Amino acid sequence: MAAPPPRRPLLLLLAGLLAAASLATLAAAIYEDQVGLADWHQKYIGKVKQAVYHSQKSGRRRVVVLTEENVIASLDLRSGDIFWRHVIDKNDPLDQLSLSLGKYVLTLSSGGTILRAWNLPDGQMIWETSLETSSASKPQLHVLSNNKVAKDNLVLVSAGRWIYAVSSIDGVISWRKEFSLDGLEIKQVLQSPGTDIVYAVGISDSSKVAIYHLNTKTGEIVKDIQQSLPGGLCGETVIGSDNVLVALDKTRSGLFLIQFKGERVSYNKVHLSSLVRDLSGTVKLLPSMSNGIIALQASSTVALLKLKGTDGLEVAQRFDQPVALSDPLTITEKDEAFAIVQHVGSQIEFVVRFTSDVGSEVIREQVTIDQHRGIVEKVFLNNYVRTDKSHGFRALVVMEDHSLLLIQQGEVVWSREDGLASVVDVTTSELPVEKDGVSVADVEHNLFEWLKGHMLKLKGTLMLASADEVAAIQALRLKSSEKNKMTRDHNGFRKLLIVLTKAGKVIALHTGDGRIIWSNLLPSLRASRSDVMPSALRIYQWQVPHNRVMHQNPSILIVGKAGPESSAPGVFSIIDSYSGEELNSMRLDHSVAQIIPLTLKDSSEQRLHLIVDSNSHAHLYPRSPDALNVFLHEISNLYFYSVDIQKNAIRGYSLQESCGFNLGDEYCFSMKELWSIIFPSDTERIAISETRKMNEVVHTQAKIIGDHDVIYKYLSKNLVFVATLSPKAAGEIGSALPEEASLVAYLIDAVTGRILHRVTHHGAQGPVHAVVSENWVVYHYFNLRAHRFEMAVIEIYDQSRADNKDFLKLVLGKHNLSAPITSYARPEVMVKSQSYFFTHSVKAMAVTQTAKGITSKQLLIGTIGDQVLALDKRYLDPRRSVNPTQQEKEEGIIPLTDSLPIIPQSFVTHSHQVEALRGIVSIPAKLESTTLVFTYGIDLFYTRLAPSRTYDSLTDEFSYALLLITIVALVAAIIVTWILSEKKELRDKWR
Q: Which of 631, 681, 687 is nearest to 656 (CA)?
């Protein structure tokens, strides 16, 4: 009887195959501990405009801030970390902030119409109260101090001629009062010490002062005093002392000192020219002083004035350079302290004084800070008790670049780069190439570390590693990723993200961990160095050296305006991408209406740019003979368009070599209008226009469909998508009836102005978001009839190349595949479109970009929940049908459904939220399968995304040691199986 064949070698072979299969599975998996290795999330709050310290002796010390980005946040006073924060909608702007009873944070918003209370420890909202106030008036929030009963504090809210008293515990309105005086606007509310009387001081018709004495318990008017002032008032008032109001007159050349003690009102007028000499600029009162001290500002001059009753004022101190003053801080019942912060050379000087003796200084400290932060704009003072029972002081300082610093004992305790909450534009730069030349010792050391690391990973995989070895594995994982090195990597993951902020500061972030590599507050965009408010517009690539000029660093171009007007002159700044050094800066002699980056480069590889001014003239930069020669050689092939939303028109232009008004400027060109499309304003208003990205790469023009037929994409960089809305549909959702609303989508050729396709969506309303890529466009809107959001897709194909499918023509060379696409020839196009329901409202849209354009596209959708959803473009294929054929299934067409799927695993931001999300940028990596995604709003988020999985690389967690062991085991199993098989055959032959 024959012996049964041995099964052990087969079992070994199966085990090896299973191990190899498990490796393939692991390569596509992402574990929880891997989140954060290739992505990072940074939280910010924006430029602080008000801060209130929590003065509780026990517990964590914190400061509650209100910012220009409409954020309320609680910060750790020791580290600057965020305890909690709330981002309020822009339609509900925050006005003021205060604390009550040491445990409630009170916020007033929407012009004094909404009052909220938040729990100080965790930020949970306790209550919300709606108030009815006068419009177009500055609201005031005042918390009454109640020393007798500490269970509740009344909150007084004034706006216009209304005043409310609200309980700070439950938000119940105790009483309300509307004053009968026409045109009254309450300016100040103050409490009479030791009594139940509160003073409400207002101005009526810019000429009359009204002072009301109110009972805090009932709101009853106890006294009503009115006084007309000659010459009128400009509306700026401050409380000089308990019973003296200081008001600036209508011409801003004098101060009224108004005393409202007793039954009468007396006043005295002081002329500023006789008080403070050599004042220039607009004079305004600073609302930060009290207790007999008044602060006055004119241009860069700040004067501290001491009140002498109603007899007059005297100058206590004058500053002729920019200075920041804090609000007064109560130290004792009769004394208050305030801070003065100003620049002295390369440092800032922090001085604390008492209002009772302005001439003497309590503290004077010199603090060294980064010079790229600009001047000090605001300062918030706080005190603490030292171990020797004396008073110490710290200050929260807001800088010109919107950063936040805490200063204490002559040092910067911590700083926050909150200018990153207001990113305007983003570009990228490659890192330097790693230098050649590695020593033999380094190679041996790296080989030893490599072997050691993989042995540790093998022990971890086999669950044999100790706790210390697991920690070592984690450390090696972070170190071996090399994501934080300052050199390029072969996959193209390491780059510099260069962002431009609203403050005019340029900041370079490393994609590895988001750290700041360099920053530069541009002098040409600093408000402190200009008479007007400059604004940063865009950031562009200026020079990306290759080949013979590789020794030069790449550079970027910053374009801004020197004022808010459309005719304001432009500002140029060129910055080194590696160091942040400003290489060149210039103030243009023309305005900036449109910026057109060209694909042309000069011999030094500087990219050419056209700047269109408000007079319809185009200016070439850089202004060099080499750039001019390159430009003139291609001027006949250059066309561009402009969208004028105000005039509801789109116009196309070419360029002529002369600049009509200035023949001497050879870099100035006149614009020739070629075509125009003017939409009827009574039926259509331009909502959005989009075009393809200049750097988008398309892998192939041909698309093979399920029946093995070929269709050709209409690939034209001159394709423009324009969406118009009916006038009533341009408002908020629900502001129009379905019969009154419509959206019209256009595909327009930007060279000839020819409308290639037009489709109307009846009952559709904005806002509209769109993205254009290759031969398709996807746009998002609201369907009033279905009461749901929709996303529509339009794909356009070139029918003029349909004859190229003839095999005989291809063999004989009688095809037109290599013929250039011209916009002058009337195109034969085929358009396919489809629309789908979509669950979310959208804030921003983008599409993934890869190095060669081979990888499948994904839409990056910024949802109303401030997250980014990656949606496969296949779901937005207009060729989807309910019952696809077998050929269509093989092609990968998904069966048609009325809604687009929302897969939780498709959120590239994971569980993070990018608060107030504004933009999404996709950056190609050198690895074709991977794209880099950067999302910005108040927060920043960065990650790597592989739309078609990492088909061209192994993951960082791939265990080469385990793979080697598996291969050795398989080879051994094969050898053993072969030997046993030979022995069995030999035994069989001997039988």
A: 631
- Four-residue CA torsion sign, 9, 12, 18, 20: negative
Sign of CA dihedral 595, 601, 602, 604: positive
Contacting residues for 872 by C-beta, under 8 A, at least 6 apart: 856, 858, 859, 947
Which range, 127-141, 218-232, 254-268, 753-767, is most confident?
A: 753-767
Sheet of strand 776-783: strand arrangement: 764-773, 776-783, 788-798, 829-838
Residues 6+ apart with CB under 8 A from 244: 257, 258, 259, 260, 307, 309, 310
- The token pair at 227 is 């006084």
The count of other CB atoms within 10 Å of the CB of residue 898 is 9
For 120-170, the DSSP string reads TTT--EEEEEE----SSS--EEEEPP-SS--S--EEEEEETTEEEEEETTT
Nearby residues of 957 by Cβ (< 8 Å), 6 or more positions away = 26, 34, 477
CA distance 419 to 423: 8
Peptide bond into 545 cis (omega under 30): no
**Tens-place pLDDT, residues 528-558:** 666 667 788 899 999 988 754 557 889 999 9
Using left for φ > 0, alpha for ψ between -120 and 50, and beta otherwise, residue 158 falls in beta
Q: Tally the C-alpha atoms within 13 A of residue 819's C-alpha that lie toward its C-beta.
A: 13
**How many Cβ atoms from other residues are within 10 Å of residue 79's Cβ?**
11
Q: Beta strands 184-191 and 293-298: pairing type? A: unpaired
Of the candidates 172, 187, 203, 94, the residue with the CA atom closest to the CA atom of residue 142: 187
**Does residue 99 contact residue 56 with C-beta atoms inside 8 Å?**
no
Distance of CA 450 to the CA centre of its chain: 41
The SS3 call for residue 869 is strand
pTM for the full model?
0.87
Instruction: Report whether 400 contacts 347 (CB < 8 A).
Output: no
330 CA to centre of own chain = 38
CA distances in angstroms from 954 to 26, 29, 108, 448, listed in the order given: 10, 12, 54, 22
Cβ neighbours of residue 903 under 8 Å, at least 6 residues apart? none
Question: How confident is the model over 13-33, as a mean pLDDT?
Answer: 42
- Please count the other Cβ atoms lying within 10 Å of the Cβ belonging to residue 567: 13
What letter would DSSP give residue 358? T
Please check the confidence at residue 460 and state whether its pLDDT lies above 80: no
Question: 215 with 197: CB under 8 angstroms?
Answer: yes
Among 189, 179, 74, CA closest to 122: 74
Q: Six-digit token pair at 830? A: 């085929």
Beta-carbon neighbour count of residue 456 at 10 Å? 19
> Kind of pairing, strands 404-408 and 411-416?
antiparallel
In degrees to the nearest 10, what's the CA dihedral of 773, 776, 781, 785? -170
Residue showing tokens 């005719």: 567
With the C-alpha atoms ordered 861, 867, 870, 875, is the resulting torsion angle positive or negative? negative
Query: What are residue 498's phi and psi, to 5 degrees?
Result: -105, 115
Which of 713, 715, 723, 645 lies closest to 690 in space, CA to CA?
A: 723
Question: Is residue 180 classed exposed, middle or buried when 0-12, 13-18 and 19+ CB atoms within 10 A define those classes?
Answer: exposed
d(CA 338, CA 487): 49
Question: Looking at residue 373, what DSSP letter applies?
Answer: G
Do the Cβ atoms of 886 and 812 come closer than 8 Å? no
Q: Which of 135, 42, 33 is nearest to 81 (CA)?
A: 42
Q: Is the pLDDT of residue 461 over 70?
A: no
pLDDT of residue 22: 40
| CB of 709 closer than 8 Å to CB of 805 | yes
Q: Which segments of 179-321 does DSSP mark as H helices, in order?
A: 272-275
- Radius of gyration of the chain measured on its C-alpha atoms: 35
Phi then psi for 961, rounded to 5 degrees?
-65, -45
